[in-house]
Design goal:
about 450 residues; 22 helices; about 75% helix
C-alpha cells in the first residue's frame, strides 16, 4: 500500500467506533464497515479481494472453537440459578446474619454478589435480583440512596472478574491462552474487589452511621436453631456448586467447557430442589441462553469480517507500529491500553471492546514480553468498570429499571463513583504487584 492510502485503516477503525457509539447493532456495524471499506479499498486498488476467501474458513474455525462452547453453558447456568430463587434466600439469610452491624445489609449484598458471581457470572441477573430484593429494604431502614444503589450495582459486576466469567472466557479466546489459567489468576483480584467494597462500606458506616444503620432487633431475631438451619440450607448448595465448577477446573479434572456443563446440571438440580423447575422456566432459560449466545456469535462473525478487511488495508500493521513505539515501552503500552479500554467502557459493551480492541493489543503485548495471563486479568478487571461508568454502564440501566420511583438516575450515578475508584485502585495494585495474579496459576503449574 502506498503512503497516500495508509489512512484507510485508521479511518475504518474510527468509523466502526462512531457507529457503535451511535447505538447501531455491533455485528452489523462491524460487518457494514468491513463491506464499505472493502469496496473502497478494491476501487482504489489497495485491497486484495483474495483476503475475503479466508472468511468461510474463519467462520468454520469459530464454530469449531471448543473454548467458546463454555459461553452458552455459563449463561444457561446463570439464568437457571436466577430462576431457582437462590439470590433471594441468600440475601435474606445474610441480611439476618449481618443485620446487627452498621452497614450490615450492604455487607450482605457484597457477600451475596461475590457468591452469585462464583455461581452465575451474569451481571444482569445479579443486579436485577439484588435491586428488587434488597434495595427497598435498605431504603426502608434508612440507608442513603447513593450507598444503597452504589453497593448493589458494584456488587453485581463482580461476576465479570470472579470466575466463572463469560468475560474471562472471551478474553482467554482472544488472547489465545488457557481459560483455566485466567480463572485461577483472577480469583485473588476478584476477592480484592469484593474486599475493597466491604471495607468502603465499613468505613462509611463508621464515619456516617446515619447512612448505613443496623437492622432493628425485632427484624433480625429468628432464633438460633432456625438461623443455623437456614444458613445450612441456603449456603451449602451454592458452595457445593462453586466447588464442582471451579474446583474441577482448578484441579485439572475438567476444562472450563466441561465444568460449565456440570454447572448446568447442578443449576437444574438446585431449581428442582427449590421447586422452581417448570417447563415455562426451562423455556425462558433456554431462550435467554440462545439470545445471548447468538449475539456473541454474530459479533464474532462481524469482527472477523472487520479484521480481515482491516488487515488487508494494513491497518493492523499501522496500529502495531504506533503501539509498539510508544514512549516508555512496556509501561507506556500498559498505560495507553488500559486508558483506552477504560474510556471505551463509558460508551460501548465489553463484548465490543474484547472483539475489536483486544486483537490489536495482543501482538504488541507479546512483542514486549508481557505475560498474557496477567494482562488478561488486568483487562478483565478494567472491563468490569465498563458496567458502572456513566452514561452507558449496563449495571446502571439494570438497576434503574427495577429501582423505586424515589431513586433518581443521579442517585445511582453518584452512588457508583466511589466503587469505580475502588475498582481502578485494584487494577493499579494488580499492575504494580503481578504476583497477585501469578500466585495461584504457579501453584497449579
Amino acid at each position: 500500500m502506498t503512503l497516500d492510502y495508509e489512512w484507510l485503516g485508521p479511518v475504518m477503525f474510527g468509523g466502526a467506533l462512531v457507529l457503535l457509539s451511535l447505538g447501531y447493532p455491533v455485528a452489523f456495524s462491524l460487518g457494514g464497515v468491513a463491506i464499505l471499506f472493502g469496496i473502497i479499498g478494491i476501487a482504489l486498488g489497495v485491497f486484495d479481494p483474495v483476503f475475503l476467501t479466508a472468511m468461510p474458513q474463519r467462520i468454520f474455525g469459530i464454530m469449531a472453537n471448543y473454548t467458546l462452547l463454555a459461553i452458552p453453558y455459563f449463561i444457561f447456568m446463570g439464568s437457571m440459578l436466577e430462576k431457582s430463587g437462590i439470590a433471594e434466600r441468600l440475601l435474606e439469610t445474610m441480611g439476618i446474619l449481618l443485620g446487627r452491624l452498621r452497614g450490615g445489609l450492604a455487607l450482605a449484598v457484597i457477600l451475596v454478589g461475590a457468591l452469585l458471581a462464583a455461581t452465575t457470572g451474569v451481571v444482569a441477573a445479579t443486579v436485577v435480583a439484588m435491586g428488587l430484593i434488597s434495595l427497598p429494604i435498605m431504603l426502608r431502614y434508612g440507608y442513603s440512596k447513593e450507598l444503597a444503589t452504589g453497593v448493589i450495582a458494584a456488587s453485581g459486576t463482580l461476576g465479570q472478574i470472579i470466575p466463572p466469567s463469560v468475560v474471562l472466557v472471551v478474553l482467554g479466546d482472544q488472547l489465545g491462552i488457557s481459560v483455566g489459567d485466567l480463572f485461577l489468576g483472577s480469583v485473588i483480584p476478584g476477592l480484592m474487589m469484593a474486599g475493597s467494597f466491604a471495607l468502603h462500606v465499613l468505613i462509611v458506616a463508621f464515619l456516617k452511621p446515619e447512612v448505613a444503620p443496623a437492622l432493628p432487633a425485632e427484624v433480625r431475631e429468628i432464633g438460633g436453631k432456625a438461623l443455623r438451619k437456614r444458613v445450612f440450607q441456603v449456603m451449602l448448595p451454592p458452595l457445593i456448586l462453586i466447588l464442582l465448577v471451579l474446583g474441577s477446573i482448578f484441579f485439572g479434572f475438567a476444562t472450563p467447557t466441561e465444568a460449565g456443563a456440570v454447572g448446568c446440571a447442578g443449576a437444574i438440580a438446585l431449581a428442582a430442589v427449590n421447586r422452581q423447575l417448570t417447563l415455562t422456566s426451562l423455556r425462558q432459560v433456554c431462550d435467554n441462553t440462545l439470545r445471548i449466545t447468538s449475539m456473541v456469535i454474530f459479533i464474532l462473525l462481524g469482527s472477523t469480517a472487520f479484521s480481515l478487511v482491516f488487515r488487508g488495508l494494513n491497518g493492523d500493521q499501522f496500529m502495531f507500529d504506533v503501539l509498539s513505539n510508544l514512549p516508555g515501552g512496556k509501561v507506556g503500552f500498559l498505560a495507553l491500553s488500559m486508558t483506552v479500554v477504560f474510556l471505551l467502557g463509558f460508551f460501548i459493551d465489553f463484548f465490543e471492546i474484547a472483539f475489536i480492541i483486544i486483537p490489536l493489543f495482543v501482538p504488541v503485548a507479546q512483542t514486549l514480553g508481557i505475560d498474557l495471563v496477567w494482562y488478561g486479568v488486568i483487562l478483565g478487571a478494567n472491563l468490569q468498570t465498563s458496567f458502572l461508568t456513566p452514561p452507558f454502564g449496563f449495571a446502571l440501566f439494570y438497576l434503574r429499571g427495577v429501582a423505586p420511583p424515589e431513586v433518581t438516575t443521579g442517585d445511582i450515578y453518584r452512588g457508583v463513583i466511589p466503587f469505580i475508584l475502588l475498582q481502578l485502585l485494584v487494577v493499579v495494585l494488580i499492575i504494580a504487584f503481578p504476583g497477585i495474579v501469578s500466585f495461584l496459576p504457579s501453584l497449579g503449574g
